[in-house]
Amino acid sequence: MPATPPSREFHVMEFAHHDEAAAFVAALSRFLDSPKGGGSGARKPPLEVWARSPVASEGVLLFLSDTALVAAKKAFSPVPIARTIKSGSLPDECFLIIEGGVTPAWGAAEASARLSKQ
């Protein structure tokens, strides 16, 4: 896992199927890259989505920063959050999948590939 983010909370989304998580990641990346989503400008605090995606046949967990949750709710409300955790509780095998101001707009196939390549 890359450097652990500073101590803050992450909102957990649970997806039973890899394809559902990939569709959400793709849609959120496109929204964030749009004028309504703020374009590619940097945000404070940083917008981050971390993922735990063991294999394509298993479920996926997404961990949204507060800023990512606000953006997701703006685009897709309601956003089903299972629980909230501290950054120190992120699983060791998770990885940064969306970083505000860095991640481009993806289609579902690219998001799926990025969830699978870890």
Beta-strand residue percentage: 15-25%
How far apart are the first and last residues' alpha carbons, in Å?
Answer: 10 Å
Largest sheet data:
5 strands, antiparallel
Mean of residue pLDDT values: 87
Output the radius of gyration: 13 Å
The succession of helices and strands, N to C, reads EHEEHEEH
Shape estimate: globular
How many H/I helices?
3
Sheet with the most strands: spatial strand order: 4-1-3-2-5
Instruction: Note poorly predicted spans.
Output: none
Number of DSSP E strands? 5
Structure description:
- The chain has one domain (9-116).
- The chain is built from 3 helices and 5 strands, in the order βαββαββα.
- A hairpin with a 7-residue loop joins β2 and β3 (60-65).
- It is globular and about 35 Å long.
- It has a 5-stranded antiparallel sheet.
- The chain is 31% helix and 23% strand.
- α1 (18-33) packs across α3.
- The N and C termini lie close together (10 Å).
- The chain has 118 residues and is an alpha+beta fold.
Structural features:
118 residues, alpha+beta, 31% helix
Could you outline the blueprint of secondary structure elements for this entry?
Blueprint: E1 9-15, H1 18-33, E2 48-52, E3 60-65, H2 66-76, E4 83-86, E5 95-99, H3 108-116
Antiparallel strand pairs: 1-3, 1-4, 2-3, 2-5
Give the gist of this structure.
This protein is α+β, with helices and mostly antiparallel strands. The protein has helices at 18-33, 66-76, 108-116; strands at residues 9-15, 48-52, 60-65, 83-86, 95-99. The termini are close together.
